[in-house]
Amino acid sequence: MKLAGVAEAFRRLRETNPDPTTELEYGSPYQLLVAVVLSAQATDKGVNLATRRLFALAPTPEAMVSLGEAGISEQIKTIGLFRNKARNTLLLSHQLLERHGGEVPHDREALEALPGVGRKTANVVLNTIFGDPTMAVDTHVFRLSNRTGLAPGKDVLEVEKRLLRRIPKEYLRDAHHWLILHGRYVCTARKPKCGACLIHDLCLYRDKTE
What pTM was computed for the model? Predict the structure, then answer.
């Protein structure tokens, strides 16, 4: 897709949804961080069901540490890999208290040093909480970027870097939210809904559906 097409695609996405945001439910930067850690290989809907219970009992790092690994596990056992996620949630809560005064740091290196936090999670937090123009590339964004020709790449890091280069600056802050939502509900994995797609005429996908 040519750069003019990229700009037009995001113009349309913004026009339709001027204020996109994550579908994860949270009440603080800490809660968003935990929710994103829990969302690996799980749906936002499933995570929200679990975190409603979890955050009612442990809304802060201090309360999470007091709840303990077994207590965390009990509240999130409905989502995949819950035992490992419970351990990471406890450890990252400890680390936030010990190294950052219980606050979520506005720093990529510090975020990625937390248990269970990788580049994608750090990008979500930096973007959603702090407004940084980062690009969190999940399975939806990766598929959409390659399928449409928006920013093809062989791995998530290559796609991330190409998206950051190709998307006009005025759209960067909200771009990953638009792409996630478009990939989740329109440009779906098995059968994209090309007839309902805002950017179907710009898209380079050869096997468009009706």
Answer: 0.89
